Amino acid sequence: MVEFSVNASNLVHELQKERGMTAGFIGSQGKNFADKIDGQRKLTNNKLETFNHFLSDFNANNISLEFAQNLDKLLLRLDQLKQKRSAINDLKLPLGEALAYYTGNNSALLSLIEQMSTHAPDQEMAIMISAYANYLQGKERAGIERAVMANTFSKNEFTGNLFFRFMGLVTTQKIYADVFLSLAKESDIAFYQSTMTGEFITETEKMRNTAMSSSSRTILTNELSKIVGYGGIIHRFKNYVLRGRQKDLDKINIFSERANEILDQYKKLPGITDSVSKEIETVRDVFNNYKQAAESVSEFKSEGKTIREIDGIVKINDGPALKAITNLSKGNFDIDPTYWFKMQTGKINLLKEVENHLAQGLADKTEQLKSTATFDLVTILLISLLGLLVSVFLSMAISKNLRNQIGGEPSDIEAIAKQIADGSLQINTNEGSMTGIYAAIMTMQKKLSEVIEKEIQNIVNAARNGDLSKRVEISNKSGFYKSLGEGINDLVDSSEAIITDTGRVFSSLSQGDLNQTITRNYQGSFNQLKDDANTTISKLKKVIEDDIQTLVNSTLQGDLSNRIVLRDKQGFFKDMSSGINQLVDSVNNIFNDASNAMDSMANGDLTNPIKNRHAGQFDELKNNINETMSNLEATITGLRDSSFIITSTSREISDGNNSLSSRTEHQASALEQTAASMEELTSTVKNNADNTSQANQLADGAKTTAVKGGEVMQQASVAMEEINQSSQKIAEIIGVIDEIAFQTNLLALNASVEAARAGEQGRGFAVVATEVRNLAGRSATAAKEIKELINDSVNKVEIGVKLVDQSTKNQNEIVESINRVGNIIAEISSASQEQSEGIEQVNTAVTSMDDATQQNAALAEETSAAAVSLSDQTSEMSKMMEFFTVSNSSSTRSPSVPAAPVKAVSSPAPATTKEYSKPVAEKAKAVNKSATNNSFDDEEWEEF
């Protein structure tokens, strides 16, 4: 058994190394370990050949039928090794399937070694084999860890459920190590502790700690993402720039301080490289910049600077920080997988040294058992030979002494002895021939006849009837007969005593008391009866109170590996002990099957139900576990399908909301430009109204002058000159009015275009813009008519200067023309008033549309954030579901669908040739899909 264990463990060691190189080879797509894997396969082949050579002379059926069947299954798996290697070389075998094949081989080999412990020749050997098997199980997990982390370090991050697999391997190794240390001898523990030290142990532990920090990195970067994301420091900063509220400034300071605390915690994690430290400082700089910029904004506001001026001064580029946070959320181990493989292999080689030491200890123990067995056999043979020689010598001495003391014919003595032996004390002999012993025999015969046939026979008859109160009367006897009587009495006394003691002991035994024994001293058969009775009670007590109670206690503690030793038991005790052992075997089998099934479920494998047959409630337990696994498999499959549908739907919602957000941003920008245009249009209309009022006053003055002209003709020349000058000014004003009407027409046209872009929400604005355009057209027509009239008036004034004589006649025409000018100017004034009212309505509509657009933008961003959060949670749920292995898993497992990022929207180009300022700062980009889970405890975030 020991030789089998050693050969099997050597093969496991080489398969472990080949598995680790295979994981690195597949994980790097053939780039790593390509030059080493062939050499390792040769070492594995050598150990496999040695193992097969040993099996050629090994009869597994001598161990047990189950052991032989498991060994046959293992050999069938090993026959596939060449085929698996070929698929690995071509990168056609998935990593999970490759690791499962190698791990399955190792598990089968280690399971066979574990079975050896139940067939060990003595308890110490069984404990040593059990410790050896647990140690090998821990070493096997170290090999799996080497393969898993070689793949992880090749990709520089954990993928799928490998992080949970890694943590499970670390925990399992510790459990097996603790079990080994609890079973191993002190010398083995000391060798283990002295061997497992040095560079390989410290380096692998450092890399382990770095890998374990992955979950801490994710938690910290998620919190950073919340601080940056929707409602975080970027939004608070923009709100502070726009509104200058103290609560936004307080939030900026809180976020900045918390971000620095998180970055400090991140930097203290194990395995932080220089590149990761640079990423941390990049994020830190941006947060500090926002804090400092907020303080500067406070100063700028106190100095009276406008938002546009502040926006032009304060410039923060948060793109590098957002990229750095994304990088920090990944593995970023920066550990060379080849270096990890080298260090872990060195650690496993140290474990191999301890394994060899344990194997040598088993071999030494085997030799010790062989030597002890040989010595015991020789001792028994020598004692038997010595006893035979002593018996022969005693027989010869006794025979010679008898001949000397008979004093007569031995045949006569033989006949007398035969008669006495036959129970006849009436012996007829030749008295003349009796000499020596003959006379003594005859005298003895008479006395014997008297004593035996009378007194002793009475005692025997009474004893036969159960009465042990009768005794031989010895007062009238002397010598031998007195001694014989006393002996008979002693015999009856002893018989009575032994029967009484035996009855007392077995009466106590019938009541369950195993502490009563026969303590009185006896001789001969009585003593043998006493010893047999005490031995029976002792064995029964040992079986019940020691063996059975020890087995019950260990079973109550959850240890089903103990059994009652059968080699020192016979008959009833052996049958009873064997039956109890079979009972524990049945319980152990169902617990092993249940443990294997639960272990599979703990590792996410739901395709490994209990297949062995059991009876009674054990079969009911098996059916319940299998039904639980089946129901859990159906649940996991349903969750996977649902998560795939939810992820697809949330991605479509996110895409739609991103598109809506983009269009809303464009619309908001266009409305801002429209608002600016309307502000200038309002200013122009006001100037137009002022000019019209001035023109109206001038027209009234001209009319008054024309009326007085008839009365003061002598001043006609001077008056006409003044009229000429006034007419020129009116012509200039009309030119301005004409230009204003032209600009108003252009602005109304642009407003109509922007209203068309706004769609349904801009329909009312389009109607107003059309009315403004019509009024501008009427203003242009009126201005043209006024201009023509003024030109005509100027011509007439020039003629009037030359023709003063005709002033009376022409004066009437001038008065009439001035009246017409007054009417037209009044119309222009009315039109300007209507224009002003229309512009006010347009401003009101634009303001309402701007508010609605801002609310739509906020709602779109919130909806997109919710969709991203839903997609993120669904993706996380999918990853959790991928931890489980179910039947037909390829048809139900959905790929992880990444959440659609929230797109940043840039402002559109202005619709007119006039350039307007952009918003204070661009909207923040979403940096992490988990950032949308953020909520703040003081108030709802206010969109700026």
What features would you describe in this structure?
The chain is mainly α. The chain folds into five domains: 2-197 and 334-371, no CATH class; 217-332 and 923-933; 407-470, no CATH class; 471-567, no CATH class; 660-866, Helix Hairpins, CATH 1.10.287. 77% of the residues lie in helices and 0% in strands. It contains 26 helices and no strands. Helix 1 (2-27) packs antiparallel against helix 5, helix 18 runs parallel beside helix 19 and helix 23 runs antiparallel to helix 24.
Provide a brief overview of the structure.
This protein has 944 residues and is mainly alpha-helical. The chain has 26 helices and no strands.
In the predicted model, the low-confidence regions spanning at least 5 consecutive residues are 890-944
Which term fits the overall shape? rod-shaped
Number of separate helices? 26
Report how far the terminal alpha carbons are from each other: 80 Å
The residue-averaged pLDDT reads: 73
Rounded to an integer in angstroms, the radius of gyration calculated over CA atoms is: 57 Å
Q: What is the beta-strand fraction?
A: under 5%
Q: Report the sheet with the most strands, covering strand number, pairing sense and barrel closure.
A: none
Briefly note the structural class of the backbone: mainly alpha
E-strand count: 0
Helix content, binned percent: over 70%
H/E topology pattern: HHHHHHHHHHHHHHHHHHHHHHHHHH
Count of separate structural domains: 5
